[in-house]
Design brief:
The chain is α+β, with helices and mostly antiparallel strands. It is 49% helix and 11% strand. The protein has 15 helices and 13 strands. The strands form four sheets. It has a five-stranded mixed β-sheet. It has a three-stranded mixed β-sheet with strand order 1-8-7, with no helix packed on it. A three-stranded antiparallel β-sheet has the order 5-13-10. A hairpin with a 5-residue loop joins strand 11 and strand 12. Helix 6 packs parallel to helix 15 and helix 11 packs across helix 13. The relative contact order is 0.17.
């Protein structure tokens, strides 16, 4: 029996690791490597990562939901960058912060709140795009929408939002690549906490009340530092996740341009398309847990203290769970279809409470874009390759947008891919 942890971490028996994480092929197209690992060695120790790797849906779900696995570890980059947040604590403290996060971002009606911001933020961004000329959709579309919606939901003015964004960019880069000095990151965090504390003290704009006023109420329910760090975390994740997801959705849409008319007029299709993008090309591919006590995982004995990396993206392509898993099916999540557990936002007690918000932003952006443009074409220098260390997306996506000259009408649905 292979035993992992406590001085016996190699555990590979002389075998090569099933995934070469440093290769250019994996960075640009990880899917064949994930599939081979799911088939041949779904759990293995990586000397390169210094972690136990898990790629199969059932095993990933186990790690995410079994309390023998924890997020608590004092040297995680997220804790160093943000301080203690619900990302890296368990128990009663986690439950208190999670309830607050769900109250703020997971509340019913979040789609309506995003739709209320759509004309002034999403609609204005899309209407300002140049028609018939190449435009970088990441910089001109995905980023302004993601930043604008979060500013609007928190009731933050543009000037304050820009200051917050400058500090957040370095904090986010540290979490992704650790190529920024930690001392500088700590200074950025202090500046962010001071700015957020001022916003709480002075009172956020009550428009839209759906989120901003909830922050005011939470100020009396959480310690001040907890609330500031929770808001800081939500502002960072609330920008980076939809930014990357919108960019990925556009890259995928290039292969499904025949759906543009339907996306404009069928709300349920845009919702399904958004969730399928999160399954098929998620912004983040993995997350980490730590073992509280000895356990078995995939036939391997894992000892207390072992670091475990679960590959959510691989689990989302597991053929034993998703039919035609390597095929993008925009109708996979239409109402009436059997529910399937997409793990892009995690699962269990640490599942991301911002999933409704992210999905609503992506779907609304798709609807508005399809309503304004009848075709979206790749420009000559368009590179839809999705890459990245932490958040994965096209780094630059040059498109040509053809303006709509007739109202969109729904065409007959094509053959569904189950």
């Amino acid at each position: 029996m292979i035993v992992i942890g406590q001085g016996n971490k190699a555990g590979n028996g002389g075998q090569a690791e099933p995934i070469d994480f440093g290769s250019a092929a994996f960075r640009t197209d990880p899917w064949p490597s994930y599939a081979a690992a799911r088939r041949d060695r779904p759990v293995w120790w990586s000397d390169r990562l210094g972690q136990l790797c898990v790629v199969r849906h059932a095993d990933v779900m186990r790690v995410l939901t079994d309390p023998v696995f924890t997020v608590e570890y004092p040297f995680k980059r997220t804790r160093q960058a943000f301080g203690e947040t619900l990302l890296d604590i368990d128990g009663a403290r986690h439950l208190a912060q999670r309830r607050a996060a769900q109250h703020l971002l997971g509340f019913e009606g979040v789609a309506a709140a995003v739709a209320g911001l759509a004309p002034g933020i999403i609609g204005a961004t899309i209407s300002g795009l140049p028609a018939g000329r190449p435009v970088d959709a990441v910089a001109a579309l995905a980023e302004p929408i993601a930043r604008g919606v979060i500013r609007g939901l928190f009731g933050i003015d543009a000037e304050t939002g820009d200051r917050l964004a400058r500090h957040l960019s370095r904090v986010s880069r540290y979490i992704e690549t650790a190529d920024v000095d930690l001392g500088d990151v700590v200074e950025d965090r202090r500046a962010l906490e001071a700015e957020i504390g001022r916003l709480i003290d002075e009172g956020l704009s009550p428009r839209p009340a759906a989120l901003a006023l909830r922050v005011q109420r939470m100020a009396s329910e959480l310690e001040r530092t907890q609330l500031m760090r929770l808001m800081l975390l939500m502002m960072a994740a609330g920008v980076e996740t939809p930014l990357s997801a919108i960019a990925n959705a556009l890259a995928v849409l290039l292969d499904h341009r025949h759906l543009i008319d339907r996306l404009a007029v069928e709300p349920s299709l845009a919702d399904s398309f958004a969730l399928e993008v999160m399954r098929f090309q998620p912004p983040q591919h993995d997350t980490t847990r730590f073992v509280r006590g000895h356990t078995m995982l995939g036939g391997i004995e894992v000892r207390r203290g072992t670091s475990v990396r679960v590959f959510l993206a691989s689990a989302n392509r597991d053929e034993s769970v998703f039919r035609a898993a390597d095929r993008f099916d925009p109708e996979r999540f239409l109402p009436g279809r059997p529910p399937v557990p997409v793990l892009s936002f995690g699962a269990g007690r640490h599942a991301c409470p911002g999933r409704p918000l992210a999905s609503a932003i992506i779907a609304e952006a798709l609807r508005r874009l399809a309503g304004g443009f009848q075709d979206i074409r790749p420009a000559e220098d368009c590179d839809p390759t999705i890459t990245g260390e932490g958040f994965r997306r096209p780094q630059r996506l040059t498109l040509v947008l053809d303006p709509r000259r007739r109202p969109a009408t729904a065409s007959l649905p094509g053959a569904a891919v189950a």
